[in-house]
Design goal:
Blueprint: H1 5-32, H2 42-72, H3 74-106, H4 125-237
Length: 238
């Protein structure tokens, strides 16, 4: 909610300005249609509109300052700067509005245009020029701060894109590394399984052949011994 505090203040002043503009414009239309030529309605609402313009210039300045601090000092902004900026902004906005309204009222000429239908016909032109130029200066100052904010915001977006691309590249590298390791593990596991199978088969079948060979040798030896004993028996009988 702190991020929108100054924007909410600006929206409130904008709504108030629009409502007064509607009433002021209606009074001008009534005078142009010769419905009334009384400045009782036109003057106070015209004064409010002119004073609100000066106050809204201050609003724009503090909205830009608020965004700039939120960009450059995000942690301190949430803890300290947001409340300080809001308090100073509301105080100065009300002060500028009240001062402007009072100056327009005090410096009002004693004899204005009787049939005037705009606010400028009922005020001191010099005072209006000074306040108007001050309002323009405040708007320009707010634009300068807004440009600084946009520059910082553009840099933030560029850094975010670079960081995002770096994170994406790191993720791709991790996936490729894991894929290579998996492929190598599959190759080595296949080679190891082949070697293990060959070793098992060799041990099994070679061992069986050696056992069969030794059995055949032993059997041949027994047959020779048996034949030798039979020959001895035949000789003794003869």
């Amino acid at each position: 909610m702190q991020q929108f505090s100054m924007l909410i203040v600006k929206m409130v002043f904008d709504i108030f300005f629009v409502l007064n503009t509607v009433v002021y414009s209606t009074s001008i239309i009534l005078q142009l249609c010769d419905v009334t030529d009384d400045a009782i309605i036109l003057y106070p609402f015209g004064n409010i509109i002119q004073s609100l313009e000066a106050a809204m210039a201050i609003v724009n300045v503090f909205v830009a300052i608020d965004r700039l601090y939120a960009m450059r000092r995000p942690f301190k902004y949430n803890r300290v700067y947001s409340k300080i900026i809001l308090k100073i902004a509301v105080t100065l906005i009300l002060l500028v509005f009240i001062t402007s309204f009072a100056v327009y009222t005090v410096t009002r000429p004693n004899k204005g245009y009787i049939h005037g239908y705009v606010f400028t016909h009922f005020v001191n032109r010099l005072v209006q020029t000074v306040i108007h130029l001050s309002t323009i200066g405040a708007f320009l100052f707010g634009m300068v701060i807004t440009i600084l904010f946009l520059r910082d915001f553009y840099g933030y977006l560029k850094r975010s894109q670079v960081a995002q691309m770096g994170s994406y590249t790191n993720s791709v590298n991790v996936v490729l590394t894991m894929s290579k390791k998996f492929d190598l593990s599959c190759v080595f596991s296949k080679a190891a399984s082949k070697n293990l199978a060959f070793y098992s088969l060799k041990k099994r079948f070679v061992g069986t052949v050696e056992l069969f060979t030794s059995f055949q040798k032993r059997r041949l030896k027994l047959n020779l011994q048996f034949g030798h004993s039979l020959s001895k028996t035949a000789v003794s009988d003869a």
